[in-house]
Specification:
Radius of gyration: 18 Å
Distance between the termini: 55 Å
Helix content: over 70%
Largest sheet: none
Shape: globular
Number of strands: 0
Structural class: mainly alpha
Order of helices and strands: HHHHH
Number of helices: 5
């Protein structure tokens, strides 16, 4: 229902959006190893410390990359023959980086169920609803995506602060 131009704009935006997150994803993957080492050594406080510290580092990296992509928006969209409004940098650290650490602690099931539920609720259902019932265009995809990330960030923040994710045993002794 969105049309070829809208789908092309969304594809271009997804490519640029992936550029924003790639460095933070690298930090998150490294975080899994650090948290695993901390928990394996029985140092839960260090695991919490590194999740917080590397989440802040990821936020700084995301902001820097968003600013760079934002500065390059006009040249990129002109080269691609698209409108500058189709490129929108975002920040998504709380919905992706702390869960890396929680998964390293063995909290994989919670992370997977949360991610799947928010994706189907927000990205899919909300987007379809906004497009078909309210006639939204490509912005419905963004609303669904931002809603997904916001809901994940809230749920993962609550889970992180509850410390329930520290109660898993990854390796039996």
């Amino acid at each position: 229902t969105l049309g070829t131009v809208a789908i092309a704009a969304q594809a271009m935006t997804n490519i640029l959006e992936n550029l924003n997150g790639i460095a933070a994803i690298g930090i998150g993957i490294g975080l899994m190893t650090v948290v695993g080492q901390c928990l394996g050594a029985g140092r839960k406080d260090e695991a919490i410390y590194y999740i917080k510290k590397l989440s802040w580092l990821s936020e700084a990296v995301i902001i820097a990359s968003c600013l760079l992509v934002f500065a390059l928006t006009k040249p990129i969209t002109l080269l691609a023959g698209m409108e500058p409004a189709s490129v929108k940098p975002v920040s998504w650290v709380l919905s992706f980086i702390p869960p890396y650490g929680m998964r390293a602690a063995g909290d994989v099931k919670f992370s997977m169920i949360t991610s799947c539920c928010t994706m189907w609720l927000c990205r899919v259902s909300l987007c379809i609803y906004l497009c078909r019932v309210w006639g939204f265009g490509p912005i419905a995809v963004w609303i669904g995506m931002f809603s997904d990330w916001t809901l994940r960030a809230i749920i993962f923040s609550i889970r992180f602060h509850s410390r329930k994710w520290l109660n898993h045993r990854v390796i039996e002794k």
